[in-house]
């Protein structure tokens, strides 16, 4: 299976269990790896035979900016489902970053990584 990756998609969302997170929102960063067969697109040099990663990026940002959830695990699941709606995408790995998580000790990042497939 071939891979198409999008790294560092940024969007502001209002996700989290604390009222401040819901009210003020924060930046979330998404890394995606889409698994698909790119041979048909490459053979014919045809965008219609692969995944349009620009559209995927817009849809993922809309999910992050959309309805709030408590857990980033839930948000990652929603992102994965959105990616798998694209016909050619057979598998997706979502790494969701929450760099401004409300943690009381010094840290660089919090991430949740999930892999989902059609199978």
What's the helix and strand layout?
Elements: E1 2-13, H1 19-24, E2 26-36, H2 39-44, H3 53-65, H4 72-84, E3 91-97, E4 111-117
Antiparallel strand pairs: 1-2, 2-3, 3-4
Helix pairs in contact: 3-4
**Percentage of residues in helical conformation:** 25-40%
Order of helices and strands: EHEHHHEE
Helix vs. strand class? alpha+beta
Report strand %: 25-35%
The dominant shape is elongated
Mean pLDDT: 97
What does this protein look like?
This protein has 119 residues and is of the alpha+beta class. It is built from four helices and four strands. It has helices at 19-24, 39-44, 53-65, 72-84, and strands spanning 2-13, 26-36, 91-97, 111-117. Helix 3 (53-65) packs antiparallel against helix 4 (72-84). The chain is elongated and about 50 Å long. The two termini are 14 Å apart.
Short description:
The chain has 119 residues and is an alpha+beta fold. It has helices at 19-24, 39-44, 53-65, 72-84, and strands at residues 2-13, 26-36, 91-97, 111-117.
